[in-house]
Write a structure and sequence with these properties.
Shape: globular
Radius of gyration: 16 Å
Strand content: 15-25%
CATH class: Alpha Beta
Structural class: alpha+beta
Bound molecules: the ligand C[C@@H](N)C(=O)N[C@H](C)C(=O)O, zinc ion
Order of helices and strands: EHEEHEHEHEE
Strand order of the largest sheet: 2-4-5-7-6
Low-confidence stretches: none
Length: 223
């Protein structure tokens, strides 16, 4: 195993957390698998993985479960994101960024030039009912990631107000989405915050574990 000491695969400590690692396959904002994602696996610093197991236990007690969409992100993936942003293309398919140009996504705070994902302490997560069938959508099938819940690809039985990685003002944690979506976001954030994670104002799905020192950005590939 070529992971550094102190890092773990999430499925070894929390097999009940659903993994849909989007950057390992094409259904993500770049439209292609991302460099460094040789396998769809969630790898984290041990502290973050252990904290997530506690979040999952809290949610399970109330009949819910977690999905992870991204965990450790190799530095080469962040570099690929920066290249993709710099290659701004007015013919973009805009499902993932319907109202924000590709070239503005870093400045608008939706994609980080130096990401806490690369130090193994950040996760992108979603919420579902514990008894829901697992669904890993492959295509958008609709023009906008902030389209009504019934029209979007099924990431979860629960409406979170937008899809994961929907670079839209409606993804802001306090955006005026439906009452149900606000309640689901609040439930997710409460469970994460109770176990030491801090949310991110622009994206309801992004959380970073507070406490441990960040350490260096890593670049080992996911296998
Ligand atoms: C790109 C998105 N999933 C995300 O994680 N955004 C934050 C800002 C990041 O890139 O660290
Ligand atoms: Zn994130």
């Amino acid at each position: 195993e070529d992971m550094p000491d102190g890092w773990v695969r999430l499925d070894e400590v929390a097999p009940g957390i659903v993994q849909d690692i989007r950057y390992a396959r094409a259904f993500n904002f770049t439209g292609a698998p991302v460099p460094g994602y040789g396998a769809p696996v969630c790898v984290l610093r041990r502290e973050a993985a252990v904290a997530l197991t506690r979040v999952e236990a809290r949610l399970r007690a109330d009949g819910f479960r977690l999905t992870v969409f991204d965990c450790y992100r190799p530095a080469r993936a962040v570099a690929a994101f920066m290249d993709w942003v710099a290659a701004d293309d007015p013919r973009d398919e805009v499902y993932f960024h319907p109202d924000v140009a590709r070239g503005a996504l870093v400045a608008e705070g939706y994609i980080a030039r130096r990401s806490s994902h690369s130090v193994g302490l950040a996760v992108d997560v979603g919420l579902d009912r514990a008894d829901a069938p697992v669904s890993r959508p492959e295509t958008a099938g609709v023009a906008r990631c902030d389209a009504p819940f019934a029209e979007r690809p099924r990431e979860s039985m629960l409406d979170m107000g937008t899809a994961f990685d929907c670079f839209s003002p409606r993804s802001a944690a306090d955006a005026a989405v439906s009452a149900a979506a606000r309640a689901h976001r609040a439930r997710l954030a409460a469970a994460m915050e109770a176990e030491g994670f801090a949310g991110y104002a622009a994206e309801w799905w992004h959380f970073r574990l507070t406490g441990p020192e960040a350490g260096a950005a890593m670049d080992f590939p996911l296998r």
